[in-house]
Every structure is written in structure tokens, then in C-alpha cells.
Design goal:
mainly alpha
Amino acid sequence: MNYDDGRRKSFFCIAVNLLDLQDLKSVMEQTEDKRKPDDSLIT
């Protein structure tokens, strides 16, 4: 696959910054429920 990973990360950073704070908190709560102890948020 030939894509720019930096561009993808920039897109997600911009998208998160455009979310309302309550929406972001809701998403974070949902992901915490599904995360496993050995999962990393940093890739």
C-alpha cells in the first residue's frame, strides 16, 4: 500500500479537534470499555 501515514495522523488530529468536548468524552469512554490492558494508544 502506498499512502502517507503522517497525512492520516494529521487528519485524525484535526477531526478530534473539531469534536465537541462532550462528544470526545463519550468516544473516550467507549474506547476505554473495549481496550485490553496490553493495548497501546500510541502506534
